[in-house]
Amino acid sequence: MAKNKIIIIGGGASGLMAAIVAARRGAKVTLLERKDRVGKKILATGNGRCNMTNVHCTYKCFHGGHHTFIEGILKAFNVTDTMSFFQELGIHPTITASGKVYPRSLQAGSVLDVLRHEVERLKVTVLCDEEVIKIEQNKQFVVYTKQNNKYYGHKIILATGGKSTPDLGSNGTGYELAKAMGHTVIRPIPSLVQLKSDAPFLKQLKGVKITGKASILDERDHILREEYGEILFTDYGVSGPPILQVSRIASDRINNNKNVYLSLDLMSDLSKKELDKALIERLTGMPYKTIQDNFIGFINKRMIPVLLKETGIAPNKKAADISKQERQNLVIWLKGLKLHIHGTHQWNQSQVTAGGVKTTEIDHQTLESNKMPGIYYCGELLDVDGDCGGYNLQWAWSSGYVAAVGASQS
Ligand SMILES: Cc1cc2nc3c(=O)[nH]c(=O)nc-3n(C[C@H](O)[C@H](O)[C@H](O)COP(=O)(O)OP(=O)(O)OC[C@H]3O[C@@H](n4cnc5c(N)ncnc54)[C@H](O)[C@@H]3O)c2cc1C
Question: What would the pLDDT profile of 12-39 be if each residue is shown by its tens digit?
Fold first, then answer.
């Protein structure tokens, strides 16, 4: 039989991994990319530093598809495999205390460079500015592009990503290709994204950063997810690592027309009792100061007028005159500022897409389509999304590897 011809659609993280693995296994690989160059999104990852994986990666860091599906793919090409793969290409890893892995150069460009060099070395044909719009099955697969070109292959790997940050290439066209082949697409929603709130004081707090705890609550105030880290107030709502981390649940609930509340513990290093004690010490230690001056040095200065307005305390009231009830109200606000979340930012800002091609329609071991054999799926296009911390790229590497191994088998 002639050499196995594989066409990979999409030159992002998963597509580049798939191209290398398939070419190493002897396939003749053509990679079609709709943008003018491959790997644009990789350059934006980890604030330009590329958090390429995480040593604590397990299926629990992912959402969407069934955990046995995710676990199987992660096992087939795990974090150690990823680190060895990149080390062989020249990427020396550096690992943070929380397990995040970056290239030692702290440059996402290094990760893309070594992938591009390997693709080139393996003589993969990379064709940019080619947007795939249709796939047909005759004796071979025929792939049609918007640029009026046709390509022929024995196997196809779909690695088109989700809908997040379309400027970097992934504009959701992969879902249309998948649907045309009979696949179900679980409604894509933005994840790892900023949250919008209508709280009246946000404009005043714009730019204030506070390290604390962010919890997503349901209507009954049950905590659905809780994360710790630096919370950034913005004029539209809140951002920062813990917010992105809890955003998936918020996004999901908003899309299902459910109420979403965010509770912020702005003094998470102190219990309510400890905070109350600290306030008593401040109030009694500096009783002659107005309450607004008394708070300077204890919380962010720009937060003081908001805190006092929201708790109904006159800013020029003397510390000595603060009642027990007022003190308790201050504690309640600082330990559980509750915001109604009415939306999330959209695709331009979201780092990852939740939802995608339903995983029960995909072979768990090879990532081959059950609807159209010979077509393989990988990366964010599938209904699998990870938490913030290097997990989404790990999913791209693992699933790209598995799809390529599957497609390389004749
Ligand atoms: C700002 C930002 C920062 C991030 N930081 C991190 C991080 O530090 N760590 C981490 O783990 N994850 C991070 N992520 C998420 C991670 O980048 C993605 O999950 C991962 O890149 C997905 O890989 P993919 O190959 O599935 O899709 P993509 O990387 O999106 O690649 C898909 C490719 O397919 C091409 N394409 C799409 N449709 C077609 C078509 N019809 N024809 C031809 N080509 C097509 C696109 O142009 C694109 O190049 C970040 C995401 C963003 C946006």
Answer: 999 999 999 999 999 999 999 999 999 9
